[in-house]
Design a protein that fits this description.
Shape: globular
Strand order of the largest sheet: 3-2-1-4-5-6-7-8
Distance between the termini: 39 Å
CATH class: Alpha Beta
CATH topology: Rossmann fold
CATH superfamily: NAD(P)-binding Rossmann-like Domain
Oligomer: single chain
Radius of gyration: 18 Å
Number of strands: 8
Largest sheet: 8 strands, mixed
CATH architecture: 3-Layer(aba) Sandwich
Number of helices: 10
Bound molecules: NADP nicotinamide-adenine-dinucleotide phosphate
Length: 321
């Protein structure tokens, strides 16, 4: 369990006004801004900072494949961005990260429709107030923030490799420092709290990022995780009671979505991060993640339980159909 001091520190830090605009010292060089011919697969681009990032990528000429759980909302976002005359294009594909069957079906469609994937951004995330178990038997926070992105990445990996140089960006959170991967109760059957579930899932995503970077050495595919900072968004929509108050704190003190979007797009395309892999980028700099993410034994165990949990949804398996 994280120390009380760490928890209090994180809460207090939400009352510090955050930057209003992206840091100009890290501006993406103009020469990196031509993404014509590049395909970017993007989850979580229907709202918050992800939506702004999709707009930026489209304006740079990318073909963005927007993966989302809400078809009407996703199609509307794709239409709005197209109407704003972005240089690239945005197409919507249905993908509910809480459902591994949906992730697999989506990955199959993406692989059929797109011969290359230059960038994968796992931006979707959710904070859920109560323990909800999906039809497939997964706790929802774990499924959306970790297991779904884990499966999606695994299913698209060969296409990323054949498109190298390619990049993967995983959206983490500074709450990962409060996390602990409880292998005895990953689904939090005994003691659910969103304050434990969300940091655990983000920590797992960090551990997966570091592990994957090792396995991708020499392939030309890099993978990094990002704490985008404290960004005004809809992330806390489900929070109730005292936790719900943080929605108001967010509105007042957090950075606008443009700041988070800029950090995502930088990690996805800027030469500032060329060849950089296996790192945890916190806001504008590489940082040290939770020690559990750096522990090879934790990572190996996580890989085993993750592969076993999604094995029936692999492309080779027919049992998920
Ligand atoms: N905001 C912050 O201060 C902060 C800090 C640290 C990390 N983050 C991380 O940053 C990322 C972006 O979050 P945000 O703050 O921009 O939040 P947001 O406004 O709530 O956007 C979240 C996005 O994830 C999508 N999503 C949620 N559940 C999904 C599911 N089951 N299947 C597919 N898509 C799903 C949402 O889709 P809908 O449009 O359908 O709702 C939306 O597009 C998240 O990973 C979050 O954990 C945020």
């Amino acid at each position: 369990m994280a120390s009380i001091g760490k928890q209090v520190g994180l809460v207090l830090s939400t009352f510090i006004p955050q930057r209003r605009t992206p840091d100009p010292r890290h501006a993406i060089p103009a020469s990196d801004k031509d993404l014509s011919g590049k395909t970017v697969v993007f989850t979580g681009g229907t709202d918050g900072m992800g939506r702004v990032a999709v707009e930026m990528l489209s304006n740079m000429g990318a073909r963005v494949v927007l993966l989302g759980r809400n078809e009407a909302k996703g199609m509307a976002v794709a239409r709005e961005i197209a109407a704003a005359e972005g240089r690239g294009s945005v197409e919507f594909q249905s993908c509910d990260l809480a459902s591994m069957a949906s992730v697999r079906a989506c990955a199959e469609r993406v692989l059929t429709d797109h011969s290359r994937i230059d960038v994968l951004v796992n931006c979707a995330g959710a904070n859920v107030a109560e323990r909800i178990v999906t039809e497939e038997g997964f706790e929802t926070v774990w499924a959306i923030n970790y297991l779904g992105p884990f499966l999606l990445t695994t299913l698209l990996l060969e296409r990323l490799k054949s498109s190298a140089p390619a990049r993967i960006v995983n959206l983490s959170s500074d709450t990962e420092s409060l996390g602990h991967i409880d292998f005895d109760d990953l689904q939090m059957e005994h003691d659910f709290s969103t304050l434990k579930a969300y940091p655990q899932a983000k920590l797992a995503l960090n551990a997966f990022t570091i592990d994957l970077a090792r396995r991708l050495e020499g392939t030309g595919v890099t993978v990094n995780c990002l704490n985008p900072g404290f960004i005004s968004s809809n992330l806390l929509r489900d929070m109730k009671g005292v936790q719900g108050l943080f929605r108001y704190v967010m509105r007042v003190f957090a950075s606008p979505p443009e700041v988070g979007a800029d950090r995502i797009v930088r990690l996805a395309v800027s030469s500032e991060y060329q060849g950089v892999t296996g790192t945890y980028v916190s806001e504008d700099a590489i940082a040290v993640p939770n020690p559990e993410a750096l522990d090879p034994a934790v990572r190996e165990k996580l890989m085993q339980v993750s592969e076993s949990a999604v094995s029936r949804f692999s492309l080779a398996s027919r049992s998920a159909m």
